[in-house]
Task: inverse folding
């Protein structure tokens, strides 16, 4: 188990080192690339909002059921 953790740390350190020590790419980004990045960001944002809405509904229904069961037991 320790060996697996050590290899993950080494791999993460190597990836970090490669990102920090990289040179400039001088790459061309056309307008379509910006549009693709913008669409991806909107998709991630909307996905997070839908996920939060679903989780909020589950939490809300849990507490509503908990309160309704408590009222039934009191009667």
Result:
């Amino acid at each position: 188990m320790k060996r697996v953790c050590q290899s993950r740390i080494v791999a993460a350190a190597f990836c970090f080192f490669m990102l920090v020590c990289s040179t400039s790419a001088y790459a061309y980004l056309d307008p379509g690339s910006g549009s693709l990045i913008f669409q991806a960001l909107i998709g991630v944002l909307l996905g997070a909002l839908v996920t939060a809405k679903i989780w909020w509904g589950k939490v809300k229904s849990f507490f509503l059921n908990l309160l309704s069961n408590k009222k039934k037991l009191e009667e």
